[in-house]
Amino acid sequence: MTTAPGRGRTGGDPVTIADVARHAGVAASTVSYVLSGKRAISAVTRDRVLASVRALGYHPNAGARALASRKANVIALVLPLRTGMQVPVVMQFATAVVTTARRHDHDVLLVTSDEGPAGLRRIAAAAMVDGVLLMDVELEDSRVPLLRELALPSVLIGHPSDTTALACVDLDFHRAGEVCVEHLAGLGHRRVALLGAPAAVYARGTGFAHRTRAGVLAAAARLGLDAVTLPCEEGRTAIRRDLASLLDRHPDIRGLVVQNESAVGPVLATLPALGRQVPTDMSVVAVCPDQLAEQAGLTCVPVPAEEVGRQAVTLLMRRLRDEPVPEVTLLEPRLAVRDSTAGRGQ
Amino acid sequence: MTTAPGRGRTGGDPVTIADVARHAGVAASTVSYVLSGKRAISAVTRDRVLASVRALGYHPNAGARALASRKANVIALVLPLRTGMQVPVVMQFATAVVTTARRHDHDVLLVTSDEGPAGLRRIAAAAMVDGVLLMDVELEDSRVPLLRELALPSVLIGHPSDTTALACVDLDFHRAGEVCVEHLAGLGHRRVALLGAPAAVYARGTGFAHRTRAGVLAAAARLGLDAVTLPCEEGRTAIRRDLASLLDRHPDIRGLVVQNESAVGPVLATLPALGRQVPTDMSVVAVCPDQLAEQAGLTCVPVPAEEVGRQAVTLLMRRLRDEPVPEVTLLEPRLAVRDSTAGRGQ
DNA sequence: GGCGGCCGTCGAAGCGCTTCGACATCCCGG
DNA sequence: CCGGGATGTCGAAGCGCTTCGACGGCCGCC
Question: Where do the domains of chain B lie, and which CATH numbers do they carry?
Fold first, then answer.
């Protein structure tokens, strides 16, 4: 225990690997090898070094480590921080990402999409991160070619149209759409509608919106149901209007699939006002965060944000180790049946 | 334009400062000084260097820079990623932080509170960040003494009881509570109630909850109103129950202050069911994200998440430059009057 | 009994950058 | 016409870490 005078664990005096080496009576490289496990070290030396590490409160300097090893031990999380997105989902997702990354001894750098490709370029060129997690990927996403060009290990949340040489994780929204319709069909409903995302989201070519719609239509066709789909804007009054006009044009619809987080509440609030009790007159099933649906007693296909986050990080870590990963990982949707759906005549 | 063969801007070949120096025909240190502006450089040299920087697509290696300059140009954003928090607020806040930080040429490392003090220690000791933004600070927060000990530049969002040697930013929740009550009083209401955060939040000693309550009570006392305050749990049914029991015990309440994001919707939905039309029978004013209130046509004191985020980063940057900053920065609440409040007899 | 091989450790060479002191060069004033 | 302060540039010394090659000691094997 030869602690140099003045050496404490508190601010001001960063403990270096040389300090640890001196304290343990070994070479700095030995300390490094103990910590990284990249060479065999005798048990007795290892214990002595580890004891010194603890005694001095040593944490390797991130910059030096990154410089020497060419790994930052940081991943970037690129979030679509435009407002109006699926906020709680993003949050849950971010939590899962950070937690999982920490478990793999990595930290998370938060990057907003609106820095755009330049942001990615910068992050990559500065070697600030070893890999990237990209959220809210659109069908034709401008960042995708860039990722290929930069040869930056990445995992996408979402599902661009060309997934070659990428790694993507997503809920199987196509299947989710099918599951909703199958559920409604199983309850005996023959006419259903999808109240989808805002028109702008479809226009942007956002994968999940398109895929859900396709799934709804596919299942409807397969099961011989009548299905109509329409986008749905945000805001109480817009929703009310869209819903009213839908029911006006198709008064015999008995099943509603809602894929629009912010519409769930208003839809449930508006239906009774339009003379439809849920679930007696109208079955409602949503694709939305489970938290939201649970509160409202809503049958839904939850968006498994946490699971997606964990998977994404796991895949990225695998990529960082140069292990092969599947191009597309789709999570199987599950249906949580609650009180908002019921059979005909119940 | 002597580009070494094979040197491109794409993946694989990091461009170093030496490359730029060679390309521009100057010493590496000159390039550094051009980029940092820390020494005078002649216009002609500067332009030549900058041209080379652009031509080669040079971005300084973050690790090397951090190592040599002892600044990471990164700040940590410590978020309370426990669920059930004010999700959209957190998101808005995070957006503002990232955007503002980028404007100051800093990046943002996302850290979860649940790594706790150890996380802060690690980040600080590894010199990964130059400073820390701490959200969701409680009255007696265990991280506060640690911050002082680590001498880590920081800005707190929230307002612990002892702010000595700290820098805190927050909405003036005390004043917000007052503003709500003053508004209700101005409309002629004499009996008001505060439907607050979940009991657990008070128990945790969360500043904003306590302060709002204090503000409500202070204004009520000052203006001679009857005020009752009670916590409010989350979840539709709990809210309904709490609200019903409140109105049962105090049927003559005509003004309601709601400070619970997740309660806003259910409260508005439940009041008519309990025989109170808004605003005819009951005026409702909330302290919540404006987005939420706007949707519901609710009079509110918005939580200015963006503004707080910007301010926090600005203060932190100032701290990093060793400039003095005020210990407490309180943002003046403003009232957004909408359709949920009205005078008696209207 | 000697030698090849393995194990455990060390020293040194960078990683790419900043920064300090040194050194020209130029211009001004005396 | 020369000294001296700006002014502009350079070279070298690290920053703290990883990693490579080297090397001594030990064991087991022929």
Answer: 17-67 (1.10.260.40), 71-171+305-331 (3.40.50.2300), 173-302 (3.40.50.2300)
